Amino acid sequence: MSYFVPLLIMQLRDLYKKAQEFEFLTAEEGVYMFEKAPLTELMHIANELRKKQVPHGKVTWQIDRNVNTTNVCTANCKFCNFYRIPGHAEAYITDIEEYKRKIAETVKYGGDQLLLQGGHHPELGLSFYVNLFKQLKQLFPDVRLHALGPPKWHTLPNWKKVRI
Ligand code: SF4
User: Fold this and answer.
1) DSSP assigned state of 56
2) C-beta 80 within 6 A of ligand 1
């Protein structure tokens, strides 16, 4: 029997029910929904979950700030006008003073999260980010760090050896 046969017979309504009961989906179930579920149905389920989690009905938002870690990148995305190749005269790595200034400003306006994005700098490994995050959390313990998305993680040297 093919590995994927159970997925083919899986009913979306079972997955919707699972989601509505706040059960985690498996990776296979997530892929199945991604490929098969109509967007309008997913929007409906998401709204139902929101209503359960936020029963007062108020819609809120989070104030955060996007700070770039570096503009050095080797991904070479065709649409990107932000990145600079390693060694370019305009290449930079954001220093701690700049983070301090921008985070303090964010906090002043009620922000509590930092979205750290940047290029895939070939010389910045995991230890660079760990040190950076430690420094930022020591300086601003109440500010959440939203960082290291999958593309960035994937380009870190030796990322496959890191246990999460
Ligand atoms: S990965 Fe990001 S920074 Fe790098 S080239 Fe692509 S869009 Fe630009």
Assistant:
1) T
2) yes
Mean pLDDT confidence for 143-150? 90
Rounded to the nearest whole angstrom, what is the distance from the C-alpha of residue 117 to the centroid of ligand 1? 10
State the pTM of this model.
0.69
User: What is the whole-number distance in angstroms between the Cα of residue 80 and the centre of ligand 1?
Assistant: 6
- Measured from the CA of 120, which atom of ligand 1 is nearest? 4
Confidence of residue 32 (pLDDT cuts 50, 70, 90): confident
Q: Which of 92, 95, 155 is nearest to 120 (CA)?
A: 155
112: tokens are 């509590």
- How many angstroms is it from 134 CA to the middle of ligand 1? 25
pLDDT > 70: percent of the chain: 89
Residue 117 has pLDDT above 70, yes or no: yes
Residue 130 exposed, middle or buried by CB count within 10 Å (0-12, 13-18, 19+): exposed
Residue among 20, 76, 77 nearest 49 (CA): 20
Instruction: Please give the domain boundaries of the chain with CATH numbers for all domains.
Output: 5-53 (no CATH), 64-161 (3.30.750)
Q: What is the pLDDT of residues 45-67, one digit of tens each?
A: 999 998 998 888 887 888 999 99
CA distances from 42 to 12, 24, 37 (A): 10, 15, 7
